[in-house]
């Protein structure tokens, strides 16, 4: 599989070729690929690649290979749901293969991974169509955080999908994106991809959000999500919760956009979502520049949870969900 190394953006566009689950796991861990739906797709591809490798060798034990690849990929990033969701789906497809020949198993699992990617592409488009209803026809300024765009999905993104469609349909839309400390996904990735698409995008430091809202320069906030609990609490990049509080204070709608594959009905509330804690070096020494004493203690949670009560609506590929979210989510997840 080939992927654009997101750690090198925006200055270099380098494509990597990955041939094993271990290589995919490394790419996920160091965030060469990131964003919840993209992680699901990558993990599914990683399993398929590993099975293909094993099938080429003598006396392949595909069940053992599947189990090891699955465990390795699952251990990479704990907060986002799509990764576990995709691996679960690959597991069901693997079990359905029964005692088929290795080549047939590899073909089936490769097809399943490809289908996961294709379905995500379509889900993004549907999120865009539904989300478009939330953008005022006369134009709007949307604040977004981190990167919930094409780089994070198999399609045109989640939070950013309505923005791409607005542009396609001639609806004026301006985007403000926060840098997203410490790894700068807003600056390095969202500003890059929206700029390339010709969108009107302005980059701000994260701490500018409150002042911009106070000055009336933001009409709505849309972010993605890494995992949405059964009650509508939503985990997303650190800083999202603060934006939701600010939006509520200033009477600005706060929307979360995500495919159903990000919703985890087995997680009752945000308190049950595991929050990934990343390296202190990302904060003390971002991108090779020392910006803090080497021995200062650092807390570096990669995500936070926005309580459902601060979320105006959740835009999914099955439509716009409104409170009370418990019932709306249960209904949306019905087959
Ligand atoms: O740590 P990251 O860059 O993987 O975090 C990504 C986010 O928080 C995104 O907003 C989320 O995954 C939604 S992507 C459509």
Keywords:
single chain; 335 residues; alpha/beta; Four Helix Bundle (Hemerythrin (Met), subunit A); Rossmann fold; 7-stranded mixed sheet; 4-stranded mixed sheet; 11 helices; globular; binds 5-S-methyl-1-O-phosphono-5-thio-D-ribulose
Condensed summary:
With 335 residues, the protein is an alpha/beta fold. 41% of the residues lie in helices and 15% in strands.
What does this entry look like structurally?
The protein is an alpha/beta fold. The chain folds into 2 domains: 2-125, translation initiation factor eif-2b, domain 1 (Four Helix Bundle (Hemerythrin (Met), subunit A)), CATH 1.20.120; 126-332, Rossmann fold. It is built from 11 helices and 13 strands. It has helices at 21-29, 36-56, 62-74, 81-96, 102-132, 161-168, 185-196, 209-214, 240-249, 281-284, 325-332, and strands at residues 2-4, 15-17, 140-144, 173-178, 200-204, 220-223, 227-229, 234-237, 254-257, 263-264, 303-306, 313-316, 319-321. It is globular, with a radius of gyration of 20 Å. The two termini are 31 Å apart. The model has no long low-confidence stretch (mean pLDDT 97). Bound molecules: 5-S-methyl-1-O-phosphono-5-thio-D-ribulose (MRU). 5-S-methyl-1-O-phosphono-5-thio-D-ribulose (MRU) binds at residues 34-37, 80, 146, 148, 152-153, 157-158, 185, 223-226, 236-237, 302.
